Amino acid sequence: MSTPQGRIARARAGRPLPRTGGRLVAAMAAGAAAELAGLGLIAAAAWLITRAAEQPPLAALSVAIVAVRAFATSRGLFRYGERLAGHDVALRAQATTREGMYEALIPAGPLGHRGADLLSRMVDDTDAVQDLLVRCLLPAVAAAVTAAAAVTLGAFLLPAAALVLLAGLLVAGLALPAVATTAARRWSARLAPARADLAARVADLVHGAADLAAYGAGERALDAAAEADARLAALERRQARANAAALALGTLVQGLTVAAIVLVAQRAGTGQVATAVLALTALVSFEPVLPLAAAGERLAGVMAALRRLREIRATPPAVAEPAAPAAPPAGPLTVRVDDLVVRHDPARPPALDGVSLTLTPGRRVAVVGPSGAGKSTLLSALMRTTGFESGDILVNDVSARDLSPDDVRARITGLTQDPYVFQASLRDNLRLAGPEAGEEELADALRRARLDAWAGRTGWDTPLGEDGRTVSGGQLQRLALARALLYDPEVLLLDEPAESLDGTTADALMADLLDVTHGRTTLLVTHRLHGLEGVDEIIVLEGGKVTQRGHHDELVAAPGYYRDLWESEALTTA
Amino acid sequence: MHKDLLRLARAELTVRGHLLTCVVAAVLAGLLVLAQAELLSGVLSGGLATSALLPLAAVVMARALLGGLQGVAAGRTASALKSVLRRGLLARLRDLGPARLTAHRSGELVTLAGRGLDALDPYVTGYLPAVAVAGVVPLAVLVRLFAADLGTAVIVLLTLPLIPVFGALVGWQTKMVTERQWRALSRLGGHFLDVVRGLPTLRAFGRARYQATVIEQVAGAHRAATMRTLRVAFLSSLVLELVASLSLALVAVPVGLRLLSGSLDLRTALLVLLLAPEAYIPLRAVGTRFHAAMEGVAAADQTFAVLDDATSGDAPVPDPEKTAETGTSGDAPVPDAEKTAETGHGPVAALSPPAEAGAGVPEIRLENVTVRYPGREDAALDDVSLVVAAGERVALVGESGAGKSTLLHLLLGFVSPSEGRVLVGGTDLRTLDLDLWRRRLAFVPQRPHLFATSVAANIRLGSDATPEAVRAAAGAARAAEFVRDLPEGYETVVGERGANLSAGQRQRVALARAFCRPDAELLLLDEPTARLDGRSEAAIVDATRALAEGRTAVIVAHRPAMIELADRVIRVDAGRIVSDRPASRPAPLPPAPVPGAGAPDAWAERTR
Hints:
The structure holds two protein chains of two kinds. Chain A is of the alpha/beta class.
């Protein structure tokens, strides 16, 4: 990524907190102040009571009385301020992280062909930044400030006691959380496979229900799931034991530290007032420190999430931006694919192996072949979302390597694999392919994609997508076609996924695709052959190689994949 | 407190024991705080000798031990409870059978039985003990305060109820607002996910960079709205915080003044100062754990909804809302209520004791069978009558959704006829023990599921076939070659849902499964060559031809090669049989697939 935007995106994604510095400091200050007020409250109250027992004049106590009331009131107010500022900072940091992640994802590559689950996980991972701030960083700062204040106060009263307190606080606030973090990391490494195993067994029971019932294997699968559950439960019990031990140690350290301080103070002959203040401030100073063990546990998860995000950001884009991009091609485009080799995985045979084809202006070429033959790879190579190993793609005789991928995509695009319906209105879903388009153009695109009747029923402004109205497979393809037509690229790519459609719908869509592409430079990927008589060339792709090419009549006359498919299509649609 | 969970916890001995230990330890540890305050105030006031620090240390140690015990017991309670619920859920899934798990709902159930139940952890380990402590410790503290100093006790008694009252009041007022805000927040997460998922589409139309600014705006707007709400929502915690800390001030200042006047001794005063906050802490702890606990309650509700679905009625009548046929159709047929009964392993159950159809390769007879799915007007199978002779090979062809898979599922006993009956070897399928009946079948579904275990275990599914038999089956299904090339051969564990095998390889493993049942008398194949390339298809066709030898076979087919090996081709359309001809007359190639033209057998000629 070498564009200026790209560099900014990286820089921003690398630092989750640049725009939130001031607010973060304010949140930390408020949190620390709240804890200090709590400490002050108990110190003042302890001093007030023990001093009052010595029966001094009332005036001697007035400052303490005021202090007790002031600390009591301010503690709640500071806490309120901390929570507001903390959440504000966390929301901002999360937004910045998401923006940074998104910009890092814009060039095709980092998340490439990974599944929807992985995307959901990435989105969840961006929440980790919130936890890092609200549940780890802010409590740690408040605890550190409180501990420092308690130790300082102790140092004025009795340095030896302060040392005891410091030792106790270090154990509870540094050693225990550090152990908890390490333990959590180790446990999650052991729990994750056990969880995955259980999930796989459960998925087997549900998704393999038909196979299990037909083969009478349900009981065994159930036993296997129960065993996986027992293994996970055993690990969870051991983890609970480790966490309980950390909790118990915290309580122990707190209590023993207080007892030791009292002992030290009494041995040193410190007065009753100072001893009480020392003991009670010590007791209270542990309150923000003890939860740090749990924060440390959470920190392990947060760090893992942030590491995953870093890995995604560090993945280089599939297609590098050329150092000095050539001028974008202009005028009618001729695209020549020349002996193209694309390899997804170095250890496996290439996905495309020596494919050549030519698209002159107005020419229509169809690509057919079994799934996995490399048809969609060819389209994504043309769109420059997948790089190629050797051969070339020439756009008006300029190598695509020398062009900016964005410039190529602006001219060679269309209905791509897995089109997506955004959770937005039909209008917005369409308009993303033509932000400047007027109502008439939008309506025209829908009409040509034969979606106008549906749009009439559904309405232009009804939300679509996950929570909104469901869109059937056929409608989704037509919406994607309408987008492609509205965008009207120089070279129209159409990836027709007939597998998700039934025969009638697929044939109707296919007919419409062929209809609207008349006179356009088109590369059509299809699984249905009905109507391919009209295209200029048909290329049969099998295992990444071109096995047949020619006109429909020639291909039907020769034995091979095309004729087989043609016959089976005849059988199933008759 | 969750009623069903509590009932379950009482009924399950292991859960009950652990829960009891956990709660008792938590309450005892809470009560020991009183002893700790007693000793500490004694030592600090000089009322007790320095040697009293020893019992103080002992109390601290006891508290730590009890706290640890509570943690261990809580962990055990949670894992035992989750195991009980999970096993119940899974057994329930098994009983539901394949016909009643829709794709959508099944995903939900997988999540619930897996990570979903983990939401119970904070409820069991945090909330339940906190509630128990809140029920006992504040009362104990109050009693001690009344004994020590009436004035303080009255102040605490009067302010203590403010915590639940204010918590409820403010909580109730802000609940609606906050809930709306949490939904908005999850929408914000949803928006980001939406954009990231649609990124390829945005990229295709050059809108990816523009969308970055939209993400920024949406996040900004939502943050502003969220902060407006939080300003109000956090007021509740401000009130609670103020009540607790001001009460301490309210206690400390008068106590100090009374000390000054000599009407109170220092030991009591320190005790009061140490004890007063302890009255408030348990109540506030319940409040802070409430939110996380509610997620657990939601998970429990969801679980019990599924479980009660099973236990409420004694007949496994499919719930029309929740039933479904696996595969292409969405819903399962409504069985005739009269004919379903107490026992059974799926939607089809027997009234009379299960019978066994006559041994040997069966004849199959469908008599005016209609299968209806709830919520659909058209029947999936409409008055279908059909006889498949013993040893006959029948190909079913037709559009997807025509009813071909329903016909197979009918023979498998996954769905039962709403009208008419299915006879196998002259016996009504409804009266058969389905487990015994299915033992006589070999079934290859349209999308076979590969289990997350070894290839060998996948092939031997449900039987105890020897390694030799497994190898032989794999060889017959043309799977031996690629299995040999796998890193650990037959012991290679295939990924979740068979992800690391190609579609053709998965299909061949499923076919090997069928071969691994040499005694099967009826072969049911659902488009075994769908999604395969020509070469894989040829291998499967050859294998299937060998498999069908000497068996009755019903094959849903759509490719000429597969249709060719049948004796008869039956075309199904919209739930009816529209043609039924022998598949033996070769004919010349048709010019084009004109809809409605020609009988299927007309070009069922092997052309390669």
